Prior knowledge:
Strand content: 25-35%
Number of strands: 11
Order of helices and strands: EEEHEHEHEHEEEEHEHH
Helix content: 25-40%
Largest sheet: 7 strands, mixed
Number of helices: 7
CATH architecture: Alpha-Beta Complex
Structural class: alpha/beta
Amino acid sequence: MATFSVLLFTTSPASGGDPDGAYVKIDGREALLRSVELFLNRPQIKQIQIAFAPEKLEEAKRKYGGHLSFSGVKVVSGGPRWLDQIAAGAAKLFNDCTHVIIHDAARPAVAHADIEALMEAADKKMAVSLVTPVRNLLSEVDEGGNPLAFAQPGSFMQILTPQVIAVSKFKEMAASKQELHASAYTFIKGSPLNIRVDGSSDASLVKAMIAMLPKPKIKAPSSPFEEAQW
């Protein structure tokens, strides 16, 4: 059975976006704290790390250190790129983990079922990513924003996180600080509610997305005596 280390990065991924999206408050709590909580209380997850840029490390420890420490989450430092944060986490990876889940901490609206699907697929695949279909016509543009060509949406998928990667592949990526080639991945369709926080103007929208996510299934009590405990 696969066992997992989770590494959350707080810089913007290669696809761009607000570099401080992870720090935006969603209904009073930062996106990064909500993202961490997606992975708590899962028996197959043996380690959780969150990476901060060096210039934000001390402030992060001051603001979030108590909460993260209470949850068993370790803090590492790396930057300026998200791949630098991946490398920082790789240096402290637990030896008994077979796979690493990487996640953009600015994406707190992830369905529990999507995380379960990723973890289940990990036993058979070297790298798995959540994706959603592109629904609208796309246009290639030049540096000035001028349209060059149209592209049909059916030829593209939007890449999401979390992603799960076998330790051997993860260490290769961390050492080279290069993304895995697209052909290395298996895609799993994820919820379109999984959007990235790209600024404070997104806070209300992401709050609404979190509220719309299906609630995780609660295990039924195995006996009336268990149900009566409180």
